[in-house]
Specification:
The structure holds 2 protein chains of 2 kinds.
Chain A: H1 7-38, H2 52-61, H3 68-80, H4 88-106, H5 114-135, H6 143-174, H7 182-185, H8 188-192
Chain B: H1 4-7, H2 10-24, H3 31-47, H4 52-75, E1 84-88, E2 91-94, H5 95-121, H6 124-133, H7 139-150, H8 152-168, H9 177-182, H10 184-208, H11 227-251
Antiparallel strand pairs in B: 1-2
Helix pairs in contact in B: 2-5, 2-11, 3-5, 3-11, 4-5, 6-7, 8-10
Classes of the chains: A mainly alpha, B mainly alpha.
């Protein structure tokens, strides 16, 4: 998978991993404050934050793996920063990344418009929810409450990760620093859509 | 003895910790996670030299989280149709719900302690090197991560620089934390643009010095797998199996 990757794309991906690793850690701390009071549902509406690096990297690099790898690297870096959630994060990073990757793989890595980005956000949400269902034992909760959590997470994935990720990547493209990456070479209609 | 967990091979530790978490996820009785939690704490007491003050500070938010989980599982617990043992403010709790809520909270505590065991005894650089040497992580990815990790202090300085530069140019400091959070995007974009340039320079420098991304046959600092790693991993699994059987026996 990595053969077709240039080294600068890999380093870019891991640097994004560092920047978003920090953002993710801040978000976890923010979520923790709530979670003590209102329980695990506190994280649901903001879950999209944790999927965003997949979507930004995929838009810029546009190669198979550009969604799952940065999410995994961001998780490894979070662990290196010595956060208290530890190795469990790496597994959730891989799973979230796979969810986003699935949406791009299904469409053959050909389209990178807003709809696909939102689909990828939703994909990451679904994958991470299934994993959370298993690991955090949501089976013990009332089905309607679990359904509410699920809906919130998918919406968050679509809005925060999908729309937010698209917005950030487009804004970054506008700065002109992305020359030499697939996003700049893409046809006009596709990059801006 | 007190150095054991610090010296353990990071990959072996990582696999053991992950395996334990995935196994615990199958249990819904309160005893299994509680027993395992105690086992992990004892391992840390005897085999590590961690800073316990820091440990307590880091555990605090998780304890709060476990409490949040407890009441969520009580109020929104799946109804099993049996008789309520407790009714409070229109919420009735059955024996089954109470057991499960306790189990989930203990699970949060066991997971957090397990995570701290890893986080507080593992050197980050050795961890990535071990992922490459033992778990065959691609060297391109491993060294990419190492390069980015070294950029961390630079990124931190840059963050404050951009913030100060924006203030100098008259960007107001927002009063509400909500607005301040939204305005983070004005900081994030220049940070990301800077990251793109740094990535390009670093990659060029690596290639100029002959980095091809092929897996080396020799390492400057090899991370070893020793007998102690296997003994520790075995002990770890024994604790896991013991708490699972203990949980099953105590529930019946």
């Amino acid at each position: 998978m990595l053969k077709s990757w240039k080294l600068k794309e890999i380093v870019l991906m891991s640097l994004f991993g560092v920047v978003f690793g920090i953002v993710y850690l801040l978000a976890i701390h923010l979520g923790n404050i709530w979670a003590g009071v209102i329980g695990p549902i506190a994280y649901e509406w903001m879950f999209g934050i944790w999927f965003i690096v997949s979507i930004i990297s995929m838009q810029i690099i546009r190669k198979p793996g550009a969604a799952v790898l940065p999410e995994t690297l961001a998780a490894i870096i979070e662990v290196m920063l010595g956060n208290a959630i530890g190795p469990r994060l790496i597994l959730s990073g891989v799973i979230q990344g796979l969810g986003a990757e699935a949406a791009f793989a299904v469409t053959g890595y050909k389209h990178f418009n807003l709809a696909i980005m939102m689909l990828a956000g939703a994909g990451a949400a679904v994958f991470s929810f299934v994993y959370g269902y298993f690991l955090s034992g949501y089976a013990a909760l009332d089905p309607s409450f679990v359904a509410l959590m699920f809906t919130l997470r998918v919406l968050s994935g679509m809005i925060i990760a999908g729309i937010g990720g698209k917005y950030l990547a487009d804004a970054l493209l506008a700065t002109g620093s992305l020359r030499g990456y697939a996003i700049s070479r893409a046809k006009k209609g596709d990059a801006g859509a | 003895m007190r150095q054991l967990l610090h010296d353990m091979n990071p990959s072996v530790k990582f696999v053991a910790v992950t395996l334990a978490m995935l196994t615990l996820a199958f249990f819904f009785d309160p005893w299994t996670p509680a027993l395992f939690w105690i086992g992990i704490i004892l391992m840390q007491v005897f085999w590590s030299r961690i800073n316990w003050k820091l440990w307590f500070v880091l555990m605090l938010p998780f304890t709060l989280g476990a409490f949040g989980y407890l009441w969520t599982a009580l109020v929104f617990g799946a109804n099993d149709g049996s008789e309520a043992i407790l009714t409070f403010a229109g919420i009735s709790v059955t024996e089954e719900q109470w057991q499960r809520a306790l189990s989930l909270s203990f699970r949060v505590m066991a997971f957090s302690t397990l995570s701290l065991l890893f986080a507080l005894t593992t050197d980050p650089v050795k961890f990535v090197m071990s992922l490459m040497q033992q778990l065959k992580l691609s060297p391109k990815l491993a060294y990419g991560v190492m390069v980015s990790y070294q950029f961390l202090p630079v990124l931190k300085d840059e963050f404050f620089q951009i913030q100060q530069a924006q203030r100098l140019r008259g960007v107001p400091v927002e009063e509400s934390w909500w607005r301040r959070l939204l305005n983070l995007r004005h900081l994030l974009l220049p940070m990301l643009a800077g990251a793109v340039r740094k990535a390009e320079r670093a990659a060029f420098a690596m290639e100029a010095r002959g980095f091809t991304g092929k897996a080396p046959t020799e390492f400057y600092r090899p991370i070893m797998l020793t007998k102690t790693d296997f003994l520790l991993a075995t002990f770890f699994l024994c604790v896991l199996v013991a708490s699972c059987t203990g949980g099953i026996l105590l529930t019946d």
